[in-house]
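Table S2 (text version). Query chain:
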Amino acid sequence: MKNEATPRDTTPPKKTPKDAPGAAIRIPDGVYKIYTSLTNAHIIDMSLSGGIIDDHNVKLFHDNNEPESTWKISYISAHDAHIINNGKLSQLMLKVIGDSGVYASYDTSSQSRAYHWVFKSAGTNVVYIESKASGDVLDVEDSNTADNTRILAGPYKGSANQKFKLVKIGNL
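Corresponding structure-token output:
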């Protein structure tokens, strides 16, 4: 009697895209509010707890006119990317720390890829905000719209909680 081996499945596993599709778009330098596409009333905000050299949590918060709820976006041509500084503490730049934590973090240089961001079109008037270092995109945790919901970075899924609207409110 012959042993019959079952054929092996040689189909490679499906790859899931990590970074958002499409070409990068250049955002004009300026001061912006960054709204989640989940609601027109919530923006990306920086926690005020901690000192100037501490990492500050980045979270969702209701729309307001506080400087910690604004972001200075600048294009760095040498890196073909943007840096995103907080409006209240401009020494703090948006950064992914660890697997998925998004913080406003202190750095004396904008040279590190950890601080570089790429904007990609996500439809009419909305963008994906992608970390140049990891390829992950900003993501509102669990699509929650409550104040203090964490902003994370994760693999691109194309979901509404990964889309943001930029509203320019001033020049640099």
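Notes on Table S2: The first strand starts at residue 24 and ends at 25. Confidence is low (pLDDT under 50) at residues 1-16.
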